[in-house]
Write a structure and sequence with these properties.
Elements lengths: L1 E4 L2 E4 L9 E3 L7 E8 L5 E8 L5 H4 L1 E6 L4 H4 L28 E8 L2 E6 L2 E7 L24 E5 L6 E10 L1
Antiparallel strand pairs: 1-2, 2-11, 3-10, 4-7, 4-11, 5-6, 5-10, 7-8, 8-9
């Protein structure tokens, strides 16, 4: 379940699947998405984009991972599953997120096959999506990133059971 209070959207803590994906009403191709996010200890969420209406955001579109990388369990994950990664596909260039419990800013720019992600003003991804032709992790049953749509929905993930928060969400079409 999602709750809006003031300028903060919260995916409330509860049973797995409680928050789900909060998805835009329309599709976006080329855009700049800016938002702030905050996660608790052991938090796990993400920002999905260019996914189909009835599709799986992280697997049929793309997801920028947001994770408490500091927990022992999460520290064992490969770099392409940590905060700032293109989930399961590409590790971030550098770590730029603040410790859990603090607000972070993120800017995602998609223009054609170009993907640029900035976390707290630091460029953490700069990719030509058309060059991502090999699947990694558990995405193997899906199309490679280079073959996925260049237009789709944008969403915030809240289905991990932690009380994640987002604010100052702005989308600019390019």
């Amino acid at each position: 379940m999602w709750r809006a209070k003031g300028n903060i959207l919260s995916a409330l803590k509860g049973a797995k699947g409680a928050g789900g994906w909060l998805t835009t009403d329309k599709e976006y191709g080329d855009f700049i998405l800016r938002l702030d996010w905050k996660i608790p200890s052991n938090g796990n969420t993400g920002v999905g984009f260019r996914y189909p209406k009835d599709g799986e955001p992280a697997h049929e579109g793309m997801e920028i991972q947001i994770l408490d990388d500091s927990t022992p369990e999460n520290a064992k994950r490969p770099p392409e599953e940590r905060t700032g990664s293109l989930y399961v596909e590409e590790a971030p260039l550098r770590k730029a997120d603040k410790p859990v419990g603090q607000w972070n800013s993120m800017e995602i720019t998609c223009k054609g096959s170009l993907l640029i992600v900035k976390t707290n003003g630091v460029e953490t991804l700069h990719l030509d999506l058309d060059k991502l032709t090999v699947l990694h992790g558990h995405h193997r049953q899906y199309k490679p990133v280079s073959q996925r749509a260049h237009k789709g929905f944008i969403g915030l993930q809240g289905d991990r059971g932690e009380p994640v928060e987002f604010r100052n969400i702005r989308i600019k079409e390019l």
